[in-house]
Amino acid sequence: MRIGCLLPLVLLSFAALAPPVLPQGGDSNINAIESALESRSPLRALRLARRALERLTQRVSDDPEGAAQIARLLALQAVAEAGIDDLDSARWSWALALHLDPEVQDLNLLRFGPTGTLVASWEERPLAVDGEITDERFAERPGGPATLFSVDGDSILPDRKSGKDPRYGRGSSPRPVILQIHLDRRGRPTLPRVVEAPSPLRAYLATEAVRDWRFQPARINGNEVAVYINWRVDFR
Fold it and tell me: Which of 60, 66, 97, 115 is a Cys-bridge partner for 74, taking CB atoms 3.0 to 4.6 Å apart?
């Protein structure tokens, strides 16, 4: 067989061994973000990551394979957010990345310096008991952490006071997503966990919407406390 006939077979063999890449320019997006992080330009990396995520979520379907693509961009976004000292946002992005694809833990974030090392050290938290209080004044009581629904005294449940439901433009309204979120004493959501979701894409869209929500804080005996809650997120 002539060399000219063998060449297509060789190329196909290399293509089969190559790692999967993001569609429609995904690799160039990743390379640009990583270059910005390596050159210690977190603001530029953050802008690129957000833009890439927006474009990607407009293209990917509900196929589970989209999870790894979104997770990799979220991991890089977390490093960028840590680079501008927005640690709450960085923890949020990293927590969602770990849930969508635990293999992002294998990414070499250490090459991005101290911020990459910091993000790589964060582990995914386990699901909490619904309503678990994280306020140290209550958590130190005998018998383990108290819950909002069993603590002594008058208690007021947290209530959502602002924020839009996520939009999903693909056909009929999808099933809702159930999230567990940690609310701090000011009613700001942190550390999301996906309890139930029809697909990775919907989990991402729901979680990103909740990132901007604000809640009336939970109260016990008149004191504002931090709690874990489960929340149903419906789509518009």
Answer: 97
Residue 140 one-letter amino acid? E
Q: Is the pLDDT assigned to residue 2 strictly greater than 70?
A: no
DSSP letter string, 56-74? HHHH--S-TTHHHHHHHHH
Who's near 69: CB < 8 A, 6+ residues apart?
Answer: 22, 26, 56, 60
Q: CB-side exposure of 193: number of CA atoms within 13 Å? A: 16
- State the angle between helix axes of 26-38 and 42-59 in degrees (0 to 180), rounded to the nearest 10: 160
The band of 211, judged by pLDDT with boundaries at 50, 70 and 90, is very high
Output helix, strand, coil percentages for the chain, rounded to the nearest 5. Answer: 45, 15, 35
pLDDT at residue 171, rounded to an integer:
58
- Nearest 5°: the CA angle 62, 66, 72 is 150
Phi/psi of residue 111, nearest 5 degrees: -70, -10
178 SS3 class: strand
- For 37, residues 6+ apart whose C-beta sits below 8 A from its C-beta are 45, 76, 79, 80, 83, 112, 116
- Give the total residue count for the chain: 236
Among candidates 193, 182, 183, which has minimal Cα distance to 215? Answer: 183
Which tokens belong to 131?
A: 């309503």
Cα distance between residue 170 and residue 165, in whole Å: 15
Is residue 125 within 8 Å of residue 95, measured between CB atoms? yes
pLDDT at position 125: 80
Residue showing tokens 């306020």: 135
